[in-house]
Specification:
five-stranded mixed beta sheet, RNA Polymerase Alpha Subunit, Chain A, domain 2, elongated, mainly beta, Ribosomal Protein L25, Chain P, six-stranded mixed beta barrel
Length: 212
């Protein structure tokens, strides 16, 4: 199952401020941004902090934005969002212009919902592994999130693989379909100590070597 792609429209203005002057720009509630193009020069723009924050909450890290710049409408995808480590203020945004008629690669988050019957019964615990997958598709077809259900994990050894997830029409899985997203492990593995004080390091699930 996939969460439908989210699209947000966002106005922008051409940016003429660079370097140290960007601090004053941010204090005014404006985020400096750059739009990279496969053909042509980069476009430097300013984004309203409040409007970008609302759009970011809607589309997430992998959604599609349509930037309104003068009489232009530029479909873009987020490449990188820089935030202040303490205040979480948006510092800079890198965007990539995309052609809505051309296939692109995108890394999409995986969300596993529900509860594993094996974990509920106490016979094992769910070990989550890969959290993102690479997909190929048209920008407007790529989902924001791929969803899986932990309810399929009923016994120790059960797994959810990348190839088990349902993709939207026209979207292709680029990651290895055998990539493990989650698996049920024997409860004893979680309880097995990694290091025995007397015997030294031991492997998970294995007894220390005999002294005889």
């Amino acid at each position: 199952m996939a969460t439908d792609v989210k699209i947000a429209r966002l106005p922008a203005q051409a940016r003429t401020v660079f370097g140290k002057k960007l601090r004053a720009l941010r204090r005014q509630g404006t985020i400096p941004a750059r739009i990279s193009q496969k053909r042509g020069l980069d476009i430097f723009v300013e984004l309203d902090d409040k409007l970008f924050r609302a759009a970011y909450q809607k589309v997430g890290s992998f959604g599609l934005l349509v930037i309104s710049l003068g009489d232009q409408s530029l479909p873009v995808m987020l490449q990188n969002v820089q935030r202040h480590p303490i205040t979480s203020q948006f510092l800079h945004v890198d965007l990539l212009a995309v052609d809505l008629t051309q296939l692109i690669l995108a890394e999409v988050n995986v969300a596993l919902a529900g509860e594993s019957p094996a974990e509920r019964a106490g016979v094992g615990f769910v070990l989550r592994q890969t959290g993102t997958l690479m997909l190929r598709g048209l920008p407007e077809a790529l989902p924001r999130v791929l969803e899986g259900q932990l309810s399929s994990l009923e016994a120790v050894g059960d797994r959810i693989l990348a190839g088990d997830l349902v993709l939207p029409a026209g979207v292709e899985l680029v990651s290895d379909p055998d990539t493990v997203l989650a698996a049920v492990m024997w409860q004893g593995v979680a309880e097995q100590p990694l290091i025995d004080k007397e015997e030294g390091p031991t492997s998970l699930g294995q007894a220390p070597p005999s002294q005889h």
